[in-house]
Description:
The chain is of the alpha+beta class and 176 residues long. The protein has helices at residues 2-9, 35-44, 119-131, 135-151, 165-174; strands at residues 46-49, 71-72, 87-92, 98-102.
Amino acid sequence: MPMNFIFKAAYVPIQWEEHYVGTEIDPRTQSFLTWESLESVRSIWVGLKGPMANAIGKGHHSWYANFVPAIAFLAAKTQKESIVGLNISYKIGEGGIALAEAVHGSAPDIAGKNLANPTALLLSCVSILRHLNLHDKADQIQNAILNTIAEGKYRTADLGGKARTTEFTNAIIDHL
């Protein structure tokens, strides 16, 4: 995942604990979220939810569905009428547990093809860093993302460019 490479390059002092959701409902949680994943978020107090297919995306449902305001980072004009794929959601729940995610869907048509724009997930990570009081790292990564997009050389297709995910990620690392 791009965030692993960017966090390593920025010397962010965290360790990742990854959990995967299934395609069947876990009877212990009555959702696609496993009990182990739920307990991890409860013990660590932060979570980053990656893209999941939903009913519109022809996959399984996300493990929670609620209406949340999203922050839109409009760093560059694109060829599209409206900017999609850059919105994040950041929620703080009971006891201060924070959950961040990209608002867009899972894009099954480009999954595994090195074409996805990771900006929303990366900016979701920035929100988590701020929650963890790692503001200097959050600023560093956010500025690198926005400068990469503004520069225009390594934009993904949804932003009017031709860069692949890895090229975009490497450009962000170069801007750190």
